[in-house]
Amino acid sequence: MYKTWWKILGSVLVIYTAIAGILMGVPRLPIINESIRNLYFHVPMWFAMIVLFSISVFYSIKSLSSKSEIDDIKAVESVNAGIIFGLLGLVTGAIWAKYTWGQFWSFDPKQNFAAISVLLYFAYLILRNAIDEEQKRAKISAIYNIFAFPMMVVLLFVLPRLKDSLHPGNGGNPGFNSYDLDSRMRMVFYPACLGWILIGYWIYTIRFRIRSIETKQQHN
């Protein structure tokens, strides 16, 4: 039970988010209106992605010194899981943009830089697949990952603030913390963030176990 409590918690929080996110009241904001409910899904996807990419860069750094295949597998599988949430973040963002900005993709700086940040990690996977020798692949991809992570942070949190943007919290626009993210929304938003992060970590552990089994079978 002690090994599964966080899985149960993550599942309960996501189910709670889905139900409460639809049924509970939200502030009536101009333009955004009911679409503000997407906050419970869109933003937590990015938080989950960032946590998973953080795990990946940790194991990439560790693998450079340990030369451990296990650390390398953990690094790549956390990226694989993180990309899932990055894509979900892009999709939920595009849907939200359609209802608030009038089109799925308006080439807003936040959208563009978010897409580039996900592509950075697709490039990481392509790089790995292009190298056959295991030790060389692990070393080069780890170095790439160490540089990709700060680039991702800059793309998501720094550059959009320097450009004119429709996205809340960028280009001079106030973020949701600045207005009308009332107590009702906080009761759903914070559990949503934790729930999706736990689900993301769960996906990562499943992928890691599968890859570990496949690797052992290849070595036998």
Automatic annotation (TrEMBL):
Any single Gene Ontology cellular-component annotation: plasma membrane
Entry keyword annotation includes Transmembrane helix: yes
A Pfam family assignment: Cytochrom_C_asm
Entry keyword annotation includes Membrane: yes
Lipid bilayer topology: Multi-pass membrane protein
Domain Cytochrome c assembly protein: 35-159
Localization: Membrane
Positions of transmembrane segments: 7-27, 39-61, 82-101, 113-131, 143-162, 187-204
InterPro entries: Cyt_c_assembly (IPR002541), Cyt_c_biogenesis_CcmC (IPR003557), Cyt_c_biogenesis_CcsA/CcmC (IPR045062)
Record-level Gene Ontology MF annotations: heme binding; heme transmembrane transporter activity
The entry's keywords: Cytochrome c-type biogenesis, Membrane, Transmembrane, Transmembrane helix
GO biological process: cytochrome complex assembly
Family: Belongs to the CcmC/CycZ/HelC family.
Known function: Required for the export of heme to the periplasm for the biogenesis of c-type cytochromes.
Name of the protein in question: Heme exporter protein C
Organism encoding this protein: Pedobacter psychrotolerans
